[in-house]
Amino acid sequence: MRYRTLDHTADVMVEAFGGSLEECFANAAYALTDQIVDVRTVLPREEREIVAEGHDHESMLYNFLSEVLFVFDATGMVFSEFSVSFSDGEVRCLARGERFDAERHRPKKEVKAITYHMLAVDPVRPSVRVVFDI
User: Fold this and answer.
1) Contact call for residues 25 and 13 (beta carbons, < 8 A)
2) In the chain, pLDDT over 70 holds for what percent of residues?
């Protein structure tokens, strides 16, 4: 299981899992896309590099997911595959996807922002938790 949705009153909270923090970040980005569209309908036709910085894992996750959301809002790109690596306070991601098509991608929710509320990164488990403002 890549991620699960947790109970939250008004927004969407997800917990993403993986064998490493890099995989958790990738699965959190997958979960973000899956809130916006049915991610299973997104084909990996184009590649885009997404880079974000942070002073700790929490700020790196927040900035990375915010950048994924920004790319969707600015360009209409939705992604279904994410290859993530870390280097000196930086998240580098090769994201694969295609331009949003309302007929094929089945829109779900409008994600307005990523929040710091209840955001958590557990490098031991490894897992991440994040709330999406809808």
Assistant:
1) no
2) 100
SS3 94: strand
Tokens of 128: 């991440």
- What CA–CA distance (Å, rounded) separates 23 from 10? 27
For residue 22, give the 3-state DSSP assignment: helix
Q: What is the pLDDT of residue 9?
A: 79
Is this structure's pTM higher than 0.90?
yes
Contacts of 53 (CB under 8 A, 6+ apart): 60, 63, 89, 90, 91
Q: Contact, 64 vs 52, CB < 8 A?
A: yes
How many domains does the structure of the chain reveal?
1
CATH number at residue 105: 3.55.10.10
Query: Nearest CA to 85 among 31, 9, 21, 42?
Result: 21
What is the per-residue pLDDT across 92-103, written as a single tens digit (0 to 9) for each? 999 999 999 999
Domain range for 8:
3-133
Which of 84, 65, 95 is CA-nearest to residue 23?
A: 84
**At 42, which helix (H) or strand (E)?**
none
Over 90: is that where the pLDDT of 10 sits?
Answer: no
